[in-house]
Amino acid sequence: MPGVAILFRSILPPGISPEIASGLPTSGAAVAASSPWLTAHIEHRFQHDRAEFHLRLDFALHAARTVVFGPSGSGKSSLLRVLAGLLKPDAGSIQLFGDTVCQIRHGGEAQVFLAAERRRVGLVMQSPAVFPHLTAARNVAFALHDRGKSGQKETIHSLLQLVEAENLAGYWPRELSGGQLQRIAIARTLAADPSILLLDEPFAALDAQNRQRISENLHQWARERRVPVLTVTHNLEEAFASGDEVLSMEEGRILAQGTPERVLARERERLLQTLRATPSLLAHGT
Amino acid sequence: MDTIALLLTLRLALVTTVILLVIAVPLAYWLAFTRYRWKTLVQAVCSLPIVLPPTVLGFYLLVGLGPRTALGRAITHLLGHPLAFSFAGLVVGSVIYSLPFAVQPLTSGFAAVDRSLLDAAATLGSGRWDRMVRVVLPLSRGSLLTAAVLSFAHTVGEFGVVLMIGGNLPGATRTLSIALYDQVQDFQYAQANRTALFLLAVCLLALTALYSRSQRRDARGGDLV
Predict the structure, then answer these.
(1) Which residues in chain B touch residue A129, judged by CB atoms under 8 angstroms apart?
(2) Closest to B119 (Cβ–Cβ): which among A129, A142, A174?
């Protein structure tokens, strides 16, 4: 079925052959067997662009680097907003490192709902949301409450260096490009010393070279501090290349969870099933 | 022109503006961001002075804060004199009467602040109060100025409420608009003209300053920084 092979090859990231993808996980990326850092059971209905969405998620995360992958509108960004405390789900519970930050019964009031400002969850959003009334350096300093002036200066410098933006410290946001603003937003998030990092397409505005370097710096920062990272992307290549664990989402539900190889295998199986169910498409590909 | 009335008017407008900003900022912040089901009723109450005849407001203030009510007696006990026919009474009346002129531009300004900035601030550990002080207020400087200018100008031009609650006591409650009324009643048209021209100039200047600032801001692409 060359048509299927061509179609399947098109969804594979470079470096992952269809042969690898077709097998179930081997000894590749390890998912730690220890207790999860995040346990979530979420139910939430919401409207977006006149369409109704229904998030129904039940999962636990162990890996240091997890990628949530799915098409636009699958609920990835809403998931991050719920985890960050910016969106209160209709029902469910969320535990971070064993602590309950959200517990809501069906149709009931929230029994526990820790506000975003008290969760210590760092969130880098798709739109950088850099404060327009503060310079780049003052943006990074926004979360640095309890450090002395010299300590602040040092932290700001090192974080700007990490995102390769140390020369932008004195600039106003209106003077910066989209990619530069995204770097400032990343540095600002790290300055808050989060216990987990949620990244919503954080490198979308960066070119490939910068994306690679800054992503490496960011993950090294997280590794050194043992901060787990949950990245959202609709880019298949990024999903399967940068996560120890992958969650595949569609229409508000998790279709598959596991190592990149396992999820890719399931994606492949799902795609093949879809193709078998539509013979005209197969005929067209041959 | 009646200098004593002029000074009293400016003092009243200044005190009213300061008090209004203190009250209107948290009220407008709440109105801009709350999902409270009775929010629209609160908004309607705050806007009532725009459509309500000033004499109606003045009458209820006069009765409500007079010696016949418990509140009125408590205020008299506290101040040593009743609120009616005093400068303090004028301030209370002016604050209520000019409330929508402060609350409405502030509510609009606060609501226009990009929500993603507030979300970002929250995830950076910034609480509700901190977000108002460090994000919303600096980004709403134009609205703050509009609220202050409109409150000041509106108080300078008050007549009905001032007359009902303050009467016409020279040096205590006789503002420029009351003086103008007296001058017309006494057929002193030259003096009345000077007083009217002054009131006209104050209002025109205030609005011109506001519009020119708004035009400059639009020319810079709506940037408030």
Answers:
(1) 114, 116-117, 119-120
(2) A129
Question: In what helix (H) or strand (E) does residue A103 lie, and over which residues does it extend?
Answer: strand A99-104
- pTM of the model as a whole: 0.81
ipTM over 0.90: no
Tell if the CB–CB gap between A125 and B139 is shorter than 8 Å: no
CB contact under 8 A, B123 and A185: no
Q: How far is A54 from chain B (nearest CA, A)?
A: 22
Tens of pLDDT, residues A72-106: 888 898 999 999 999 999 999 999 999 999 999 88
DSSP codes, A134-153 = S-HHHHHHTT--SS-HHHHH
pLDDT digits (tens, 9 = 90+) for B7-39: 999 999 999 999 999 999 999 999 999 988 889
Contact B120, A182 (CB under 8 A): no
User: Residue for token digits 């993808």?
Assistant: A21
Count other Cβ atoms within 10 Å, centred on residue B126: 22
Compute the distance between CA of residue B223 and CA of residue A88 in angstroms, rounded to an integer.
32
Residue of B nearest to A134 (CA): B225
- A185 token code pair: 């937003």
Q: How far apart are CA B26 and CA B16, in angstroms?
A: 16
Q: Do B124 and A185 touch (CB under 8 A)?
A: no
Out of A116, A133, A143, closest to residue B138 by CB: A133
| Burial (CB count within 10 angstroms: exposed 0-12, middle 13-18, buried 19+), residue A108 | exposed
